[in-house]
Amino acid sequence: MTDVKRTASGALLLDGNVLRDRIVADVARDVADLSSIPCLATVLIGDDGPSQVYVRNKHRQAQLAGMTSRNETLPASATQQDAEQLLGNLASDPSVSGILVQQPVPAHLDGEKLLALIPVDKDVDGLTTASMGRLMRGIDSLVPCTPLGVLRLLQHYGATTAGKRAVVVGRSHLVGLPLSVLLSRKGIDATVTLAHSRTTDLVQVCREADILISATGQAHSIGRDHVKPGAWVIDVGISRGETGIVGDVDFDAVQSVAGAITPMPGGTGPMTVACLIENTLSAWRRQH
Q1: Range of 150's domain?
Q2: Catalytic: which of 15, 61, 102, 164?
Q3: Which of 145, 183, 239, 283 has the smallest number of Cβ neighbours within 10 A?
Q4: 102 catalytic, yes or no?
Q5: Are 126 and 132 in contact (CB under 8 A)?
Q6: Regarding beta strands 98-101 and 191-195, do their DSSP bridges make them parallel or antiparallel, or are they unpaired?
Q7: Rounded average pLDDT over 175-192
Q8: Is 189 a residue of the active site?
Q9: Catalytically annotated residue among 15, 121, 125, 235
C-alpha cells in the first residue's frame, strides 16, 4: 500500500479520495474492453441543493470511468404518475445499465413505490426490497453503495475483520442495517453489534469495538470516550454546520486514540460514489 497517510497523532488516515480514484481507474480499464458502454441514469426530483451537487459528482466519476450518464430531472411539483412513468421508461430501456433515484424525494411522493419500479439488475444503489432481501439471504446482489464503500476502505487499508467486534451506530436501511449484515457475512466474519439512540450505555458499547462505525448524522456525537485505544473509526454521518460539513466523529479528539480513522469530508463520501460506479459495471455484466 503506497497511499499511507497518518494524522498528527499517528493514526492511519483512511483516505477515501485516493481509493475512489483507484477504483474508478480500475473500472475504466474494464469498461474499455466491453462490447458496449455502461450507462448510469440518475433521477433527481425537485431542487434540493445538496442533491444536485451529489448527482453532478456521480456523473463526473461515471464519465471518468468511461461510462455514459443520463441525468433525468423532474420538478418538485411532479406527480407520482410523472415519476413512475419516467422510471418505467428507464427500466425498459436496454441502453440503461443502472438506475438511481437520488434521495430524498419530495414528501408528497411514495418513494418506496418508485424504488419498486427499478429492476433488481439495474438497482445500482442496492436499496430496493429485492436487493435488500438478497443481501439478507446471502444471495449475490448489488450491495448498497455506502456500506460497500465502508467495507472497501477496511479491506484496502488492511483491517482485520474476522473475529473482531464491530459496532455500528445507527440502524437506517440506507447504511446501518445493510452494513451490519455485510460485516457479519461469511468471509468477513465480524461480530456485529447494531447500536442506536435507545442503546443503554452507548459509550461503553462503543468502547468494546475494534471497528466503530457511526452513521447517525448527529454532529460530533462520537468523542474520545467512545473509542477503545487502537480501534478503527469510520465516520459515515454528515451534518452541515456553520463551519461547513462535519461528521458524527469529533475527529480532533478521536484521532489521538484511534488506530485508524476516516476524515470528514474525504472518507466514506467518495467511497459511496466509487462503489456506485463499481455497481454500474456489475449491473452491465448482469445484463449481458
Answers
A1: 144-270
A2: 102
A3: 239
A4: yes
A5: yes
A6: unpaired
A7: 97
A8: no
A9: 125
